[in-house]
Amino acid sequence: MKEGWKSLAEYINIALPKGRLGEKAYDIFESIGYGCPSIREQNRKLIFENEENGVRYFWVKPSDVAVYVERGAADVGIVGKDILLEQGSDVYELLDLGIGKCRMAVAGLKGTRVHSDHTLRVATKFPNIAREYFRGQSQEIEIIKLHGSIEIAPILNMSDVIVDIVETGTTLKENNMEPLEDIVQISARLIANKAGYKFKNRQIREMCEKIAALREGKE
Ligand code: PRP
């Protein structure tokens, strides 16, 4: 840790995904007593800490959260199950936070047949999830890896189907597409570094218990 920052060991270090999901996750942490008021200030800072309750937050790219946690730069983090499945990260998955709910699905232009003797061209940001799913279906595929706006691929006949996140279904509908097969339900998970979970076991378990109690109170 560079000068001016306390060592990692003195804090619970939490990696939050930048964006709406991270903000919702922070609300949860705040309401169970891990608040860090400076995080609410609109600025470009990426690290926030509250010495009083011993927490430090990092804002990171959603797809990088599990990397920070796996390498122990963060003790815990919030990450979508989609990213966990895709990256196969070596971390403990401690809790389903019940936020960021959506599903991973195969989708295509209306009336598209998913299964055939031909190799299916699949456009996706999630090649590992797609491969695993179609292996289970004994369907030959060719992956076309994209980084966003996946729905365009079948419209331009660059792929037969897509494997992507469906939340409200609006993007599919507005592009004349439909979900064809559901693959897996997705939501945000609390993950922990394996060594950190041992060394900071009491603090991390206490955090989990408080989150679980909050969730039970809401259900
Ligand atoms: C995600 C996903 C779909 C869309 C689904 O895209 O890849 O395109 O949201 O949401 P909906 O069912 O509520 O319409 P995102 O907004 O992350 O942008 P992207 O196209 O860059 O992946």
TrEMBL record:
Its EC number is 2.4.2.17. It is an enzyme of class 2 (transferase). It catalyses: 1-(5-phospho-beta-D-ribosyl)-ATP + diphosphate = 5-phospho-alpha-D-ribose 1-diphosphate + ATP. CDD domains: PBP2_HisGs. Residues 61-212 form the ATP phosphoribosyltransferase catalytic domain. GO terms for molecular function: ATP phosphoribosyltransferase activity. Catalyzes the condensation of ATP and 5-phosphoribose 1-diphosphate to form N'-(5'-phosphoribosyl)-ATP (PR-ATP). Has a crucial role in the pathway because the rate of histidine biosynthesis seems to be controlled primarily by regulation of HisG enzymatic activity. Lacks the C-terminal regulatory region which is replaced by HisZ. This is ATP phosphoribosyltransferase. It comes from Anaerotignum lactatifermentans. The gene is hisG.
